[in-house]
Amino acid sequence: QVQLVESGGGSVQTGGSLRLSCVASTYIDSSYKLGWFRQAPGQEREGVAAIDSDGRSAYADSVKGRFTVSQDNAKNTLYLQMNSLKPEDTAMYYCAAYYNVFAVQYRPLVIAYRGQGTQVTVSS
Question: How would DSSP label each residue in 101-120?
Answer without folding.
Answer: GGGGG-SS---SEE---EEE
